[in-house]
C-alpha cells in the first residue's frame, strides 16, 4: 500500500506509526515544509519538501489572516502533489494533520485516494479555552468572528476526509456532527518501557548542581511557559510552597515563547512577567530554589521526571499534553487542574489529585500536603503508571489500534 503523510513538522504525532507501517512493508512517503532539501529521518522513507512562494497579504482583513495563511500553504503542497502525480505517484491513503491547511486539495489531485485526518481540536467561542480564564477575557465579540473563519479549515476538511483520529475522547467531543462519528479515539502512544521509574536517576542543572530521588524536587513542564498551561497559577502558589517546604527545589521546563493563545501586550515574555510578579514576595534563598532549565533534550527530560517527587500539570480546556502521560508512566505523583482534558487520565485521589485551576491557595496546600505524605505519593504514583500502561502504552495498546485503523480505512 502507498501511504503519504502530510505534516508541516513531520513526523509530529505520527513518529511511531510511520516506522511501524514501513516495517509491515508499506511504501511510505512524507511531506515537510522546508525551504531547503530535507534528509530523510528513516532509511527507505521518501521525503518531499515544499515551501510557500508567497506571503500573507499586507493589511488583509484581520479575520482572514489565518485562512489566507492556510490557503497559501495548501497551494504550495498542491503544486507538489501535482508534480508527484505527473511522475506517476498516486497514494492509496493520505494521513494528514490538517491544522495548517496543507491537505485541503488532496482530493483535487487524487480523487480516489482515501484521506484520514488528525483531529486535534475544534475551536469554540464558549465552553473551552476561549474565555476560560477571566484574567484574559475575550477582547471583543470580534474574537468569535475570527474563530468562525479559523474553523473554516476544519469544515472544509470534513467534506473531504474519509476518517479522523483524535488522541482523547474529550478532544473528539469538541468536533461537531456530522463528522464526529468518523473520528476514532486512539492516543499517539507512549513507550512505557522507556518511560519508567529509575531509583538511581539524577538530574544536573547547567551549573553542575545535581538532584536525585533523595531531593524534594517539584517539576512543572510546558513547551513554553504561558497562561494556557497554568504557568501564572503555579508561580503564584510558590511563595507559600517555598516558605513551608524549605528543602523544596522547583524545576521548570519550557521556553520563553508562546505555543497557544495570545502573546503578551508588552515586550516581556509570559515567563518574565510572572517571575517579576513573584520576585518581591520571595527571599534570595527562595528564589535560588526555582530553576528554569528552558527546553531540554528527551533523555534529560526523562531523568528529570524520574527524580520528581511531585509533578504539577495545569491546563485550560485544551489539547492534553504528552508530558502528563509521560510523567504518569514514570510513576510521578501528579497534582493537576480539574479541567476537562484531565478527566480521562487523572481520577481524583486514585491516579493523581485534582484541584481547581484558579485556586492558588488549594494548589499550594495540596502541594505541601502531598510532599508531607510519602505513602499517598507512592500509592498515586504506582496507580498512575498502571493506568498509563493499560490505556496509553505504545506497543500493546496504541500502535496496534492505529495500525488496525489504517487497515480499516483502506479496506485491506
Topology:
Elements: E1 2-6, H1 17-23, E2 27-33, E3 46-50, H2 65-86, E4 93-96, H3 106-109, E5 114-118, H4 142-158, E6 163-166, H5 169-173, E7 183-185, E8 202-204, E9 210-212, E10 216-224, H6 231-244, E11 248-255, H7 270-278, H8 284-287, E12 290-294, H9 298-307, E13 310-313, H10 322-329, E14 334-337, E15 353-355, H11 360-371, H12 374-392, H13 394-410
Parallel strand pairs: 1-2, 1-4, 2-3, 4-5, 5-6, 6-7, 10-11, 10-13, 11-12, 13-14, 14-15
Antiparallel strand pairs: 8-9
Tell me what the structure shows.
- This protein is an alpha/beta fold.
- Helix content is 36%, strand content 17%.
- The chain has two domains: 2-189 and 395-410, Rossmann fold (3-Layer(aba) Sandwich); 202-392, Glycogen Phosphorylase B (Rossmann fold), CATH 3.40.50.
- The chain has helices at 17-23, 65-86, 106-109, 142-158, 169-173, 231-244, 270-278, 284-287, 298-307, 322-329, 360-371, 374-392, 394-410; strands at residues 2-6, 27-33, 46-50, 93-96, 114-118, 163-166, 183-185, 202-204, 210-212, 216-224, 248-255, 290-294, 310-313, 334-337, 353-355.
- Strands 3-2-1-4-5-6-7 form a seven-stranded parallel β-sheet. The protein has a six-stranded parallel β-sheet with strand order 12-11-10-13-14-15, with helices on both faces.
- The mean pLDDT is 95.
